[in-house]
Amino acid sequence: MMGETGSPTAKAQASSQAGAQARAGDRPPVKPPAPPESRGGGPLPPTLRRNAPLVPTDSAASRALAAVIAILTFLAALCAGAAEIVASSAVQWQGTVAQEVTIQVRPSPGRDIDADVARAEGLAKATPGISAVRVFTKAEAERLLEPWLGSGLDLSDLPVPRLVTLKLAETTPDLKPLRASLTEALPGVASLDDHALWLRRLSTAANTFVGVGVGIVVLVLVATGLAVVFATRGAMAGNREVVEVLHFVGANDDFIARAFQRRFFGLGLRGGIIGSGAAIAAFALAGLVARNWRSGPAGEEIEALFGAFHIGWRGYAAVLLIGVIASVVTGIVSRLTVRRFLS
Fold first, then answer.
1. Contact status, residue 225 vs residue 326, Cβ threshold 8 Å
2. N or C: which end of the chain has fewer CB within 10 A?
3. pLDDT, tens digit (0-9, with 9 covering 90-100), for 300-317
4. Which residues have a Cβ under 8 Å from the Cβ of 153 and sit 6 or more positions away?
5. Taking the domains of the chain in order of start, what are their residue ranges?
6. Any bridge partners for residue 192, and if so which?
C-alpha cells in the first residue's frame, strides 16, 4: 500500500513543484530593460549618450570659435600676402634701378648745354661696363616735371637740367673713373647719380613694411590664442561634471587634455582652411581686377607700384602656412589651458 501511494513527504514535495511550475507558466517572460530614450523621458542630451565625445562636436560655441579663427586667419593671411607683394616689388625696383645710373648736366651761364651733354655722352661711352647710353632731349626733360608742375607750362625760362641715362652691363661696375672724368671735364656742371641713397631708402621702407606685416601676423595669432583660452575655459566649465566623473573612474589629466586638444585642433584646422582659402580667393580676385585695369593710366600706376598683385608661390605658401599655424596654436593653447585648469 505504501509502495503504491508513496510517503506523505514525497507527495507534498511533488505537489509544491507542480504548483510552482504552474505559476511560472502563467507569468509573462521577463524582458530586458528598455533604453533610457524609450522610458518616456525623451532623448538624452548629446553629452550623456553612449560614445558621445567629451567636448561637444557641433555646438553654437564651437561654430562661433571656428568663425573667429577663420576671420583672424584671413586677416593674418592678407597681411602676409601684402608684405610679400611689397617685398617682391621692392626687389624688382632695386634690380631695375641698380642697373642704371644718371648723369645730370645743369645749365650754366656762358656755356653751351648741348655741347656739355655731348661731352658727357662721349665720356660715358668710353667707360668700361656701360652697355647703352641714352640722352634725354630738352622736351623729354621738361616732360619729367609734369607730375609735379602740371602740363601746359612754358619751362623755357627755367634752368631745367638735361639727363643722360647709362645702362650698366655689370651688376656693380667701377664708376669712380667716370665720376672723376666728369668732374675734370665738366666741373660744377655734370654730376653722376648712382641712386644709392634712393635704393637705401627704398630698402628701408620695404623692410619696415614687411616687419609691420610680420608683427600684425604675430598679433593676430596671439589674439587667436586668447580666443581659444576663453573658449576652452568655457568648455571646461560646461563639462565640469563629466570631467569629475572621468577622474572618479580613473582617467588622468593627459587623457582629458588630449580630448580637448583634438577637438580644438579640429576647430582651428577648419577655421584656418576657411580663412586661408578666402585670402587666396581675395588675392586671385585682386589680380584679376588689376589685369582688367592695366589698360588705363591708373592701372599702369598701380602696376608700377605693386606689380600685378601676384604673390607667387612663396606668398601662397605663406598663406597656407598661417592656416596650419593657427590650427596648431589652437590645439597647443587648448591643451595648456586644460592642464592649467585641472591643476
1. no
2. N
3. 566 655 555 677 788 888
4. none
5. 58-95+199-342, 107-188
6. 103
